[in-house]
């Protein structure tokens, strides 16, 4: 047995899988309908699963017999060229792993969190009806443990009047049925108890239109806490597959203000904060920032973090997004592999600095596929801090 060639074939397979994941992630970041992305995933699965026996039997044990004394010279140049490309895939995979393992929290961000075991709190696992019920019931599915994240963000551009303001951020509820209503009620009760000054939702409300009646018992809880700056929402790419007017109407009836494609200026102690919503590339956006006072702090709600470059170009100070669900499955050491983004898993979930822009990407509460491992659902409480306060505390 030639173990070196066995290791090389394994590395080629790993690189091949990374290239396929690269292609799958980028196409899922585009404005494609579900039937198209379903076909792409089927082709991806076939190529990934088929390559393992192809390499093992066609190149390793039989065919070119590379694991049993065969020579690479016998392998056609076309295959060698593709295997070389797989080498690029291996480098990309190693960089992703390094970023996952060693990415520090950005300067100016402090983070703490606690876990809410919804199953223990309720006394039962909140699994409802639907064709994905078996997925929702998978052993060890992290779907039913919420991470309540507390973030303190020190932002140089934040006016003093906004120091200490709290934002409750929730994303990607994907109301569908398999993850039952009590799970979401528990999450929103927790958020209501935070008594934030502003609540925001960054899209993907539902995956089954009849679940629109879940909006009032969940989202409806937060306006009742009388937040000083209200509750604002945008919609996401899953909402784009349905008639959005009833979704917007349901959110409005629950006390939430539609921020899609527009800018609003909020004032506190004489200081301004401009908040905008961008549902690009699926629904309303981009917002016209010229409507904001030039001195205002800029806060953007976007569904996809892929809009970070546009946010930077518009001098946005803080961007809140969702969409990538933390990859939904994050492997130990390796981290997540799949995220529907033009940037792959770069912004799968967490807090990032991109130049002057600080961005938090929530893993959201659920997904069309109700399966999570290593990527718990998330609700986030963000406290804004200005520089002077941070300097005082440091001093
Ligand atoms: Fe989503």
TrEMBL record:
<feature type="domain" description="Calcineurin-like phosphoesterase">
    <location>
        <begin position="166"/>
        <end position="326"/>
    </location>
</feature>
<keyword id="KW-0812">Transmembrane</keyword>
<feature type="transmembrane region" description="Helical">
    <location>
        <begin position="79"/>
        <end position="102"/>
    </location>
</feature>
<dbReference type="InterPro" id="IPR004843">
    <property type="entry name" value="Calcineurin-like_PHP"/>
</dbReference>
<keyword id="KW-0479">Metal-binding</keyword>
<keyword id="KW-0378">Hydrolase</keyword>
<dbReference type="InterPro" id="IPR029052">
    <property type="entry name" value="Metallo-depent_PP-like"/>
</dbReference>
<dbReference type="InterPro" id="IPR051158">
    <property type="entry name" value="Metallophosphoesterase_sf"/>
</dbReference>
<feature type="transmembrane region" description="Helical">
    <location>
        <begin position="6"/>
        <end position="25"/>
    </location>
</feature>
<dbReference type="Pfam" id="PF00149">
    <property type="entry name" value="Metallophos"/>
</dbReference>
<keyword id="KW-0472">Membrane</keyword>
<feature type="transmembrane region" description="Helical">
    <location>
        <begin position="46"/>
        <end position="67"/>
    </location>
</feature>
<protein>
    <recommendedName>
        <fullName>Calcineurin-like phosphoesterase domain-containing protein</fullName>
    </recommendedName>
</protein>
<keyword id="KW-1133">Transmembrane helix</keyword>
